[in-house]
Amino acid sequence: MTNAKPKRNRAIVIGGSLGGLFAGNMLKKAGWDVDIYERSAHDLDSRGGGVVLQPDVVEVFREAGVDIGAMSLGVPSKNRVVYRKDGSIQDKRPAPQMQTSWPLIYSTMKETFGDAHYHRGRVLTSIEQDEDAKTVTAIFEDGSRETGDLLVGADGNGSTVRQLIWPDAKPAYAGYLAWRGLIPENDLTPAARDGLLGDFGFSNTTGSHILGYLVPGENNTTDPGKRFYNWVWYRVADDETLAKIMTDKDGKQRGYSMPEGKLSADWKAHVYREADALLPAPFREAVHSTQEPFAQAIRDLTVPSMVNGRVILLGDAAFVPRPHTAASTSKAAANALALYDALARTPEDVDAALERWEPGQMMLGNMLYRQGTQAGDSLLFRKDMSERVG
Ligand SMILES: Cc1cc2nc3c(=O)[nH]c(=O)nc-3n(C[C@H](O)[C@H](O)[C@H](O)COP(=O)(O)OP(=O)(O)OC[C@H]3O[C@@H](n4cnc5c(N)ncnc54)[C@H](O)[C@@H]3O)c2cc1C
User: Fold this and answer.
1) CB 155 near ligand 1, within 6 Å
2) Whole-model pTM?
3) Lower Cβ count inside 10 Å, N or C end of the chain?
């Protein structure tokens, strides 16, 4: 009589950013062998971009075993403050919440997952499924192959997994972009510090919507004086203008995202000019204090389904909600938590678990899509559009 151990399920996760790490950590907790394959050959980096901390992210931290009592999860804000264009306060009300940063979530989840099964510099190029054996094989650019019981497409809004299996689902430009800035809080003018720090600030005019808040600084510190101020300024821009903005200072076309340090001098000057014309004093000064503004086009993405055999999509690979929902990261976390729950209920029947997992995640993605498009279109496109970029 043999005493063979039951075979452990193996997951192949494509994409080692937040969605891949949330899924990787939760699948490990479910007792799976997990390998994460990330295209980038280096550690991912975003120098501290802001993320509103939502309960699902804290829940993944907790479930994955992070000692959240021993760390500072972010920077709290007290009030929501709306400024008029002349700098007077239109509305101020208590709305305590916590803002964190992309690097804090990434470094925490990456450390928890560990290095042994996190593989850098591996670019997925195709997928093969064996429906009888219930296996799926990932094929990489270097010709290597990895076979498992489940392939998780956590490869972001340009997802190769989605392009291979759901080729008709593509992101669509929403008609506006976000100018963004991230600066050490002490680089703000004293007046901007007085007006902005400690609260979640906003200012809206037609075709222009800016918001800002404090986030952790270098090495995830939340010490006063060492944090970053993160501002995001939405502006309407047609396709032609967007293409010009996304041509970087070396003439390279960047598509939908312009990294820090690459914006052309003309567009940088444009950002400062527009700040003078459209923004109340605290935000105007914050924008002027930012030496390297960057930009991101706002795009919508939905998918008709999230499961195909033993391939699933999660995070931005499946749905990209508008940033007004502050939900991209928490949706990726919610997808991973629900996957854990579904697999834990029927560990012997992966197909049944995926069947149970999908409807709730589709509902969540579609609900955030509707909320985000309504909020964004009403903020940016109401009344006349005379104040568009360009
Ligand atoms: C470097 C970086 C910095 C970011 N900074 C911020 C921020 O400051 N604020 C914010 O709100 N959001 C930020 N985001 C986006 C944020 O992570 C997502 O909106 C959200 O958390 C969902 O994450 P995701 O893992 O589904 O998608 P993404 O974060 O887009 O990750 C997708 C990952 O898949 C990898 N990948 C893509 N194609 C392949 C392939 N063929 N093979 C293998 N790997 C592949 C990519 O390199 C990437 O790491 C950032 C994303 C990245 C990659």
Assistant:
1) yes
2) 0.95
3) N
